[in-house]
Structures are given as C-alpha cells and as structure tokens.
Amino acid sequence: MNPMLPNNYDFLYIFAALGSLLTLVTPVALVWVLIEVRKIRHLLQNQAKHEEK
User: Fold this and answer.
1) CA-CA distance, 19 to 25, in Å (whole number)?
2) Torsion sign over Cα 30, 32, 37, 42
3) Which of 31, 41, 46, 53 is most exposed by smallest CB count within 10 Å?
4) pLDDT in tens, 2-49
C-alpha cells in the first residue's frame, strides 16, 4: 500500500468541497454584481438629468 494515497484523497475532497462552494457562491455573486451595476446606472442617469436642467 502506498502511504501517499490518503493525502491524495484528502486533496480530492478539498477540491470537491471548494467546487461545491463555488457553485453555491457564483450565482449569489452574479446577482449582487447585477444589483450594484443597476444602482450605479441609476445614479449616473440621475446625474445626467440634473446636469441637463
């Protein structure tokens, strides 16, 4: 038996956990970015309206 095998499996479990975390976090991050972009666009539109007046 190779004593290195358990360590390799530990790395696989770590990668699996990181992958599952990424799949959970990615949609939340995308929605958050969309909300922030909308806020910034709204602020820029308000500034443009004020400058026109």
Assistant:
1) 10
2) positive
3) 53
4) 555 556 678 888 889 999 999 999 999 999 999 999 999 999 999 888
